[in-house]
Amino acid sequence: MAAQSPAAKIDRAQPPAEEINKAPPQTEPAQGAAVLVVGATGILRPAVGTLLARGVCVLAVARDGDRLMRLADSTHGRPDQLLTLAYDAADASFPVAVEASLTAAGLRLDTAVTYSPASRREVLDELAATAPGGLVEILTSNVAAPRGSDRSWQLADLPPGSPRWRRLVLGWHRQVCGSRWHTPDEVSSAALHALDSAGDHLLGVVSPWEDGPG
């Protein structure tokens, strides 16, 4: 198993969002493999379009079937390239539903990108174990909330991970006057960057905590 690279912070030193979107993946899924995207009609909707533009097969998951239909209409993905699954990713049966959807289309799971609030730990454990390319879990800034320590939170404070389970922590964008949350385009770009690389990542900043958006 390859060694995990040091955790990375995605900031102004990283390529702009549009460059990350256009850049080819370092490791493309093999023919007949698909990328699972949980949160496909919300914060990760731009990621679905980018993956399709790369020629990657995508299984887009959300709880709202109507929003998934609108996603399919807007991306113009080929029926054999974009699959949709209206399902609650927190349900214990979710991995079985994913496998059934992919098998019916003659595909297999390669990698997964999931917005953490929509998933459960046991479900993520199973997905990470069955996806050869691993899993990118997107965490909100709540993981960096102060817990009685004066020390600023760091990526190293996350529980131990693995090369096949990478985490992307969503911080905020610091501006001259205040701060703001990241847009779906920015989050999607960072998620794809994490998908194409090793280690854990932080998008933006999470300290000082009191400087975050209200």
Description:
By secondary structure, this protein is α/β, with parallel strands linked by helices. Helix content is 28%, strand content 23%. It is built from six helices and ten strands; from the N terminus they run βαβαβαβαβαββββαβ. The chain has helices at 17-22, 45-53, 65-75, 94-104, 121-130, 184-195, and strands at residues 8-10, 33-38, 57-62, 82-86, 108-115, 134-139, 165-170, 172-174, 179-181, 201-203. An eight-stranded parallel β-sheet has the order 1-10-7-6-5-2-3-4, with helices on both faces. It has a two-stranded antiparallel ribbon with strand order 8-9. Helix 2 packs across helix 6. The longest helix is centred in the C-terminal third of the chain and has 12 residues, at 184-195. It is globular. The N and C termini lie far apart (42 Å). The model is unreliable at 1-7 and 10-27 (pLDDT under 50).
Estimate the mean pLDDT confidence. 83
What is the subunit arrangement here?
Answer: single chain
Give the DSSP E fraction (strand runs of 2 or more residues).
15-25%
Instruction: Provide a count of the helices.
Output: 6
Look at the helices and sheets and give the structural class.
Answer: alpha/beta
Q: Give me the Rg, rounded.
A: 17 Å
Largest sheet: 8 strands, parallel
Shape category: globular
Amino-to-carboxy terminus distance? 42 Å
Order of helices and strands: EHEHEHEHEHEEEEHE
